[in-house]
Specification:
Blueprint: H1 2-45, H2 49-78
Length: about 80
Amino acid sequence: MEMMLWNIVLSLFVGIVSWVLREKSTELHRIQILLNRTREEIAKEYVTKAEVHADINRVILRLDKIDEKLDRFVERHNA
């Protein structure tokens, strides 16, 4: 009788531990999916270094052209 009670207790313990581990595994999988989605969304919202450099170079070229025009304007009015 005592052996049967011990088997029941151990079976319940193993069952509960198995259930908890399965729940934790499912939750971990869900969190991994959410993390991957977050990484994908972040990649959509931010720019790469190459894009930033290309945009800054375009701005610098425009400023250089404006600077040249201002220099010519000043030379014409001072002469």
